[in-house]
UniProtKB/TrEMBL annotation:
InterPro entries: CAT-like_dom_sf. Residues 312-343 form a coiled coil. One of its GO terms (molecular function) is acyltransferase activity. This is Acylsugar acyltransferase 2. It comes from Solanum lycopersicum. The keyword Heme does not apply. Belongs to the plant acyltransferase family. Keywords: Acyltransferase, Coiled coil, Transferase. The lineage of its organism: Eukaryota, Viridiplantae, Streptophyta, Embryophyta, Tracheophyta. The keyword Acyltransferase applies.
Length: 446
């Protein structure tokens, strides 16, 4: 972070928040699942910005807002107790109730100056500095939080949760559960999904002596000159893209994620071709798929699989064709899990990863495009008691270093359009952000 940006921070206070109730002895040492063991130790960040607090909160001093969040965080940690513990190598979590780090800061500028800034560097001000600067190597608590007060009266709440403990679904449920408790502090049974950290039942872990060989914990993305940019697709533009797909495809009910992923993938390949002044480069689209259902919705951890589509020829870049391939692959994966016995779940998952990785290992000329989506999660509905957020910032806007060809999708504030964060090599981004077909449907936000 540059000195000119860091000078905006006037104070930082650190606290440790422990679970409201002690974790039962029977739950104190949950095993990591094989999928948890595979995941690197990266922290997933997310930030929510709230304008000047309304109603009864408008005249509350800063410390009252902080105490409100601290108390509700303590209560939600009794349900999400692994986050308050510590990793036992790549084997299990010692749920010792040591707590999580909670920072409170003040920033000497209006909130809008941060989330409207054209460079994502300023976004990092609302995150705990040590976590953002060391996302792959941080050795503090498994969940780290920051409450930021702006001089305009607005606040930001940021969360950095260890990927070892859970995926985006786990993150989303934690965030919503915390906000629900904050709004209803007197009720202890108000959230419909009671989390269970039982992923190891479905995906048995490797033997203790083999666990270190499973993890890609030491794999840090190659430091390339990448940049991240934000775009938005409005409701009307999304409808127009869907109509294009429906007119030319057998998929008559394409999802927002399918259409937007296919469109970005198509435009990224097209602009890459221009950069190289060559024919289309063979490309892979990787996308994670949540396995709840068929697995129970209350199962937390890393409960997801992977599917890929391969594009070798220019005729395969047609939008409707890409959407059809995405739908076909996703449905095939879902069907495999739906019909599988419990002991078959892990072999199926490993085969999905093997297929995708083999394509890359054996074909180094392929370009890989990674897509992740939280479109279905109502991030703009997260209300801690003072209203809904004005802005939600996606994880990859803070990725350090930026990951090449990474695309993150979220619903917009009105939940009828899509906000995008795209990370690419600098020369590729220069072509991508000027692509006329992209700009017909997507507007730059940064």
């Amino acid at each position: 972070m540059s000195s000119s940006v860091s000078r905006l921070v006037s104070s930082v206070c650190k606290k440790i928040i422990k679970p409201y109730s002690p974790t039962p002895i029977s739950l104190r040492c949950p095993k990591l699942s094989y999928l948890d063991q595979m995941v690197g130790g990266i922290y997933i960040p997310l930030a929510l910005f709230y304008p000047k607090l309304s109603n009864t909160w408008s005249n509350k001093p800063n410390n009252v807002v902080s105490q409100h969040l601290e108390k509700s965080l303590s209560k939600v940690l009794t349900n999400y107790y692994p986050f308050a513990g510590k990793l036992n190598d790549n084997i299990s979590i010692d749920c010792n109730d040591n707590g999580v780090e909670f920072f409170v800061t003040e920033i000497n500028c209006p909130m809008s100056e941060i989330f409207n800034h054209p460079y994502f560097e300023k976004h990092n001000l609302v995150y705990p500095t040590e976590v953002i600067n060391n996302q792959y190597t941080y050795e503090g608590s498994l969940a780290v939080f920051q409450l930021t007060h702006f001089n305009c009266g607005g606040i930001a709440i940021s969360m950095c949760l260890s990927h070892k403990v859970g995926d985006g679904y786990t993150f989303g449920n934690f965030m919503n559960h915390w906000a629900t408790i904050a709004r209803n502090p007197l009720s202890s049974e108000i959230y419909p999904i009671s989390p269970k950290f039982d992923g190891s039942f479905y995906f048995p872990p490797a033997k203790d002596e083999d666990s270190s060989n499973v993890s890609n914990n030491n794999i840090v993305p190659q430091r390339e000159e990448c940049v991240s940019k934000g775009f938005s697709i409005s409701s009307s533009k999304l409808t127009a893209l869907k109509a294009r797909v429906i007119n030319d495809s057998e998929v008559q009910n394409p999802s927002d994620t399918e259409v937007v992923s296919a469109f970005l993938y198509q435009r990224a390949m097209a602009t890459k071709k221009l950069v190289n002044s060559d024919s289309i480069r063979p490309s892979l689209l990787h996308q994670a798929v949540n396995l709840r259902p068929p697995l129970p919705k209350h199962t937390m951890g890393n409960i997801c699989s992977l599917f890929s589509i391969l594009t070798k020829e220019e005729k395969e870049m047609d939008l409707a064709r890409v959407v059809s391939k995405l739908r076909k692959e996703k449905e095939e994966v879902k069907q495999k899990y739906k019909n599988a016995k419990i002991e078959e779940l892990l072999p199926i998952t490993l085969e999905q990863h093997r297929k995708a990785n083999d394509l890359l290992v054996n074909n180094s000329c392929y370009d890989l495009y990674r897509f992740s989506s939280l479109i279905t999660f109502p991030s703009y509905e997260v209300d801690f008691g003072w209203g809904k957020p004005e802005k939600v910032i996606s994880p990859i806007s803070t990725s350090n270093p930026p990951i090449k060809n990474m695309f993150f999708l979220m619903a917009d504030k009105n939940r009828d359009g899509v906000n995008l964060t795209c990370s690419m090599k600098k020369q590729d981004m220069l072509a991508f952000e000027r692509d006329e077909e992209l700009l017909r449907f997507a507007s730059p936000t940064s």
